[in-house]
């Protein structure tokens, strides 16, 4: 994550990239409902859940690309895009943990990292700095996790396809979790440097 800000090019709210991000956010409760449906006596709807997740991935790619191409980078978009990423990761973690597809230690590792970053954001605000911008390392972590979770969901079954999905799913989960913590650690180091410099000049 980078502390420097991306230049805001528009203050408009109703842009195509922002509408795509809003649609992604609306898909979060639908995705969680689909993934937890079997736990409440309903039919298994993993295929529909995977479709919602795939559409979210496509819109995630498009909103950033279109915002840059059409000069529609906005303050709202800078909030919506990472918020949608985090919410999809959170809801997927909740759903897969509830269904016992992923272990509690992985859930704890991912949630602990987000909790630490939330504390860091509070420290930054107290010193007058803006929230962090997502950089390549953070995007790479999200990319790996967004591939890992559908594969792990697909692994909940029997046969060669679920077994293959489990192998690749856990590979992506391992890399994603490592990058997630790497990006978080670098961010903590940057925050400490900023606070130290701010304190020494104050």
Low-confidence stretches: 1-6
Task: Tell me, rounded to a whole number, the average pLDDT.
Answer: 82
N-to-C CA distance? 25 Å
Computed structural class: mainly alpha
- Assigned CATH architecture: Up-down Bundle
Shape verdict = globular
Order of helices and strands: HHHHHH
Task: State the helical fraction.
Answer: over 70%
Strands, total number: 0
Tally of helical runs: 6
| The level-1 CATH class | Mainly Alpha
Report the C-alpha radius of gyration, rounded: 18 Å
Strand-residue proportion: under 5%
Walk me through the structure.
The chain is mostly helical. It has one domain: Up-down Bundle (Four Helix Bundle (Hemerythrin (Met), subunit A)), CATH 1.20.120.1760. The protein is 76% helix and 0% strand. It is built from six helices and no strands. Helix 1 runs antiparallel to helix 2, helix 2 packs antiparallel against helix 5 and helix 3 runs parallel beside helix 5. It starts with 15 loop residues before the first helix and ends with a helix. The N terminus is likely disordered.
State the main characteristics.
202 residues, Four Helix Bundle (Hemerythrin (Met), subunit A), globular, 6 helices, disordered N terminus, mainly alpha, 76% helix
Give the topology, please.
Elements: H1 16-36, H2 46-69, H3 75-98, H4 104-126, H5 136-154, H6 160-201
Describe the structure in brief:
The chain is mainly alpha-helical and 202 residues long. It has a single domain, classed as Four Helix Bundle (Hemerythrin (Met), subunit A) (Up-down Bundle), CATH 1.20.120. It is built from six helices and no strands.
């Amino acid at each position: 994550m980078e502390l420097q800000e991306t230049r805001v090019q528009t203050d408009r709210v109703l842009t195509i990239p922002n509408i795509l991000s809003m649609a992604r956010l609306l898909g979060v409760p639908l995705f969680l409902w689909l993934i937890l449906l079997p736990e409440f006596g309903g039919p298994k709807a993993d295929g529909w859940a995977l479709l919602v997740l795939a559409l979210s991935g496509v819109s995630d790619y498009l909103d950033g690309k279109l915002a840059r191409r059409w000069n529609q980078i906005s303050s709202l978009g800078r909030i919506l895009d990472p918020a949608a990423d985090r919410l999809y990761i959170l809801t997927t973690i909740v759903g897969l943990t509830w269904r016992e597809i992923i272990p509690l230690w992985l859930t704890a590792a991912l949630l602990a990292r987000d909790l630490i970053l939330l504390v860091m954001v509070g420290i930054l605000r107290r010193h007058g700095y803006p929230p962090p911008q997502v950089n390549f390392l953070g995007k790479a972590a999200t990319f790996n996790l967004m591939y890992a979770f559908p594969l792990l969901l697909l692994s909940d079954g029997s046969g060669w396809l679920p077994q293959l999905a489990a192998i690749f799913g856990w590979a992506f989960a391992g890399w994603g979790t490592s990058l997630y913590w790497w990006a978080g650690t670098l961010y903590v180091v940057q925050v400490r440097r900023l606070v130290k410099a701010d304190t020494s000049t104050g």
